[in-house]
Amino acid sequence: MTDQSEAASTPLSLTSVVASGLPTELGKPTAAKYYDVPAVFNRRPDAAEMAGLRGADGHAQLVTAGYPDVTLDVQDRRLVIGNTNLGQLERGLATVVATIVDVVSRASLFDKEQVRDAARTEFDDRTARAREVTRAAERIHFVPEPSRVSAG
């Protein structure tokens, strides 16, 4: 079983098409030319990855690659590649989609690492300040001057 922290640092990727999620009429002459193709992720995407895949940047990359009508949607552990077909995916769309997923995921992982580094630095700074304050406090001794002590 994969450690959760290891999975969180693993880039998101697609593993395969879910054949059981394809339209049942595929292969028939009456089958739709374009349909949704579900693909399985290697792990559950986080919120930033989902937003990136559903967002305008991902779609802009599809448009640039020549697939303006194709859509991407995240549903649980699946990426639903909409308004496409297996032929388009086989002829290059799969590579385009895999690249989009990789770029979005690596950007999300980088952002998370930056946040972790900042938190680690802040913690180290707080710890160092607390140590210095403790050392300064320990140097304080409340001892009366001997000449000021009255003899009773």
Measured distance between first and last alpha carbons: 77 Å
Helix content: 40-55%
Shape, principal axes of CA atoms: rod-shaped
Order of strands across the main sheet: 1-2-4-3
Number of contiguous helices: 4
Q: Stretches where pLDDT falls below 50 for ≥5 residues? A: none
List the helices and strands in order.
Answer: HEEHHEEH
**Proportion of beta-strand residues:** 15-25%
Structural class: alpha+beta
Report the biggest beta sheet as strand number plus sense, adding barrel if it closes: 4 strands, antiparallel
Radius of gyration, in Å, reads 29 Å
Average pLDDT over all residues: 88
Quantity of strands, as a count: 4
Descriptive terms for the model:
152 residues; alpha+beta; four-stranded antiparallel sheet; 4 strands; 49% helix
Q: What do you see in this structure?
A:
The chain has helices at about 5-10, 45-55, 55-65, 85-140; strands at about 15, 35-40, 70-75, 80-85. It is an alpha+beta fold and about 150 residues long. α2 (about 45-55) runs antiparallel to α4 (about 85-140). The radius of gyration is 29 Å and the shape is rod-shaped. The mean pLDDT is about 90.
Write the layout of secondary structure elements.
Layout: H1 4-8, E1 14-17, E2 35-41, H2 47-54, H3 56-64, E3 71-75, E4 78-84, H4 86-138
Helix pairs in contact: 2-4
Structure summary:
The chain is an alpha+beta fold and 152 residues long. The chain has helices spanning 4-8, 47-54, 56-64, 86-138, and strands at residues 14-17, 35-41, 71-75, 78-84.
